[in-house]
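Ligand-bound model needed. calcium ion.
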Amino acid sequence: MTGGVSESFVVGSKSFTAVAINTAAKAGEWIKSKLGDINWVDTKFSAQDLVTEVDKGSEKLIRNLILTHFPDHSILGEEGVEPGPEASKKALQAMSDEEYLWIVDPIDGTTNFVHGFPFYSVSIALAHKGEVIVGVVYDPSRDELFVAEKGKGAYRHGKKTEVSAEDTLLRSLIATGFPADRDGALPVNLKGMQAIAPKVRNLRIAGSAALHMAYVATGRLSGFWEIGLNPWDIAAGALLIQESGGRVSDSDGTPYHLGVRNVIATNGHIHDELIQELANAGASRIE
Ligand code: IPD
Ligand code: CA
Ligand code: CA
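Prediction:
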């Protein structure tokens, strides 16, 4: 349990945050135990959009744990939704009125997991009436747990996290991703990379949006952007960054909400500059 946040958001004797932490840690440990022991790998929306029995098993474990504690809550999990951007938008719409909605990515960074590249995570967020109130990202490879509670700050193993201080793109280390939607989001994001790479200190593309966002929260990265993400990639990381003093928005500057798919997530200082450069490059959205 991280320091200073344990008694918040309690229903009866159960803390939402404690359940989120415990669930992410258990799923992460189980995932790690399956490294190198994957029986099947399948593709979803594109040849690069992978799913394994470990993604499915992790989501099942997470659902069971959450529903044991909170049987009335709803869960939006990646593996419970048909692949592709349209299905994911519909799934969120169908659930956005739920009072308590858990938003789950059972493995963020499946390609890395399949290859044994140690940069993947479990991402669990809880939204109350559409607003994220708890966010947990767990990196089993490093046993690093990042946790945020709305209005109470964000922590990494009990120590408050803070975004970095860089105030120009030129001094910034920025991350992005290669979206799985090869025809829609990928070409737009590639255009963005071409425009941003010469303007920043450097770019990193390591393959887990949630973990990249946790790194923005801890100041290891100055910012992150990606076109065409899903709610489960972003929700927990967004709260981590906001509670660490940073800013998260849509690529048009609209403040973060669950429907954001083109995410800009930064230390705040470089936010407008990053939005502007992506807009200048025509790389803010899928037309
Ligand atoms: C993917 C990762 C990756 C990002 C892709 C996501 P998944 O999630 O976050 O970094 O570039 O857009 O789809 O499929 O590994 O859960
Ligand atoms: Ca993901
Ligand atoms: Ca996933």
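The domain at 169-280 is CATH 3.40.190.80 (D-Maltodextrin-Binding Protein; domain 2).
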